[in-house]
Amino acid sequence: MPVKNDWLNTFPELKKNQDNAWHTSADKAMRMQVKRGSVLFRDGDACNGYVLVVNGAIRVQKIDPQGHEIVLYRVEEGQSCMLTTTCLLAKQNYPAEGVAETDVDLVLLPLDAFDSALSKSPGFRHFVMANIGHRISDLMLLLEDVAFGRKDVRLAGFLLKSAARNGDVLELTHRQLAVELGTAREVVSRLIKDFERKGLVSLGRNRITILRIDLIRKIADRDKDS
Predict the structure, then answer these.
(1) Do both 61 and 132 map to the same domain?
(2) Sign of the CA dihedral with 40 first, then 42, 46, and 47 last
(3) Residue where a domain terminates, one of 128, 146, 164
(4) Same domain, 116 and 218
(5) For position 154, what pLDDT does the model report?
(6) pLDDT digit string (tens) for 131-185?
(7) Which of 5, 38, 107, 189 is deepest in the core (most CB within 10 A)?
């Protein structure tokens, strides 16, 4: 059944949209609570609605036949899922999977409501296309990083971002790092061990403690200086 539209507070652009067609569609939105670790969609699944994250984070990742993973992007508070959007537009199944990285509060706009708003509401259409544009830019940076970036620089950059979000003690396995960086676990293990030998980090069981964030920052900045 339809829910109250208080979730629009998380999406200012949609909240201020006065198109009648958009409000008619928004009234059909379904509020959902998803537990951490839940798989929201798998490679090959049909796409049945437009996803808007009110709170939490969804990790969108691709897994090859050999089981290697790479994180494509995350959908966080106030964002929509680009992969879901493109699948809806192209009437295709998902080519990757989405996993709740935290407990997630989301809104699902059913397919018919999405199609109606997209065709009749210029404001909603602008919101959808703008989000696709932003996400494509992120994916281009990821492709450039995976194809051309030095792995020690990428590791340092990831550690900096993680420390900024979570503090100096990071709960991470080598496999999780490999997924984040799009490389083999053995490569990550070698790199992080090298960081430990240099006194940049301390390693524990599924834990990385940042010791010299200043030196890690210097490594991360190398590509800017080259």
Answers:
(1) yes
(2) positive
(3) 146
(4) no
(5) 86
(6) 888 888 777 766 766 665 688 888 999 999 999 988 999 998 888 888 888 777 8
(7) 107
pLDDT in tens, 130-144: 988 888 877 776 676
For residues 102 and 127, give the distance between their C-alpha atoms in angstroms, rounded to a whole number: 25
What integer pLDDT is reported at residue 223 of this predicted model? Answer: 59
Residues 6+ positions from 63 with CB-CB distance below 8 Å:
43, 69, 96, 97
Residue 19: burial class (beta carbons within 10 Å; 0-12, 13-18, 19+): middle
- Looking at the structure, tell me whether residues 63 and 79 fall in a common domain: yes
C-alpha distance from residue 51 to each of 2, 37, 64, 73, 100 (Å): 15, 17, 24, 14, 13
> 16 and 118, same structural domain?
yes
Full domain range(s) for residue 205:
149-225
Does residue 163 share a domain with residue 91? Answer: no
Q: The domain spanning residue 161 has which CATH number? A: 1.10.10.10
The average confidence (pLDDT) of the chain is 88
Cα maximum dimension of the chain = 62
Residue where a domain terminates, one of 120, 146, 172: 146
Residue 225 pLDDT more than 70?
no
**Residue 145 is inside which H or E element, if any?**
helix 122-148
Residue 4 has pLDDT above 80, yes or no: no
How many domains, the chain? 2
